[in-house]
């Protein structure tokens, strides 16, 4: 949407970043890290992070890979055993999907993702044992997709199609249509 900061778009009276933080907290994530790029100062000033730790990504314009690397670095620095990645532009993915995917954590070697009719989507759970590999694979607009595809047999797919809508809000039309019956 023009690179202008999706985090501050509103759906249902809340900013997308606020909805994401609430979904993570409601899904059982005690330590929430939000990676901020465009309009980061404004997000911080508005106070919509609900106690989440804000991590700035000055390279946000280079693509989502840099944001994923920044987030994984922050989780590793905090001693986290895994990262649960939720995208801000998928407001139809809420606490129930977060809780299901979070429940797939077994060890630092865990890899899991929400499934939607058998297709991998978000949220994605990345055990700490995979942080270095995901970091190395995350460049430009490529996050963990290639890394997960190469390890597909080891990724636990957690069906969430009955409780979440994985639609991305990528255009003004998507934003206007969100919540409209399909």
TrEMBL record:
Keywords (A to Z) from UniProt: Transferase
GO molecular function, one term: transferase activity
Domain of life assignment: Bacteria
Keyword Cell division: no
Ranges where the MobA-like NTP transferase domain occurs: 1-151
UniProt xrefs under InterPro entries: MobA-like_NTP_Trfase, Nucleotide-diphossugar_trans
Protein name, entry field: NTP transferase domain-containing protein
Annotated organism of origin: Streptomyces carpaticus
Higher taxonomy: Bacteria, Bacillati, Actinomycetota, Actinomycetes, Kitasatosporales
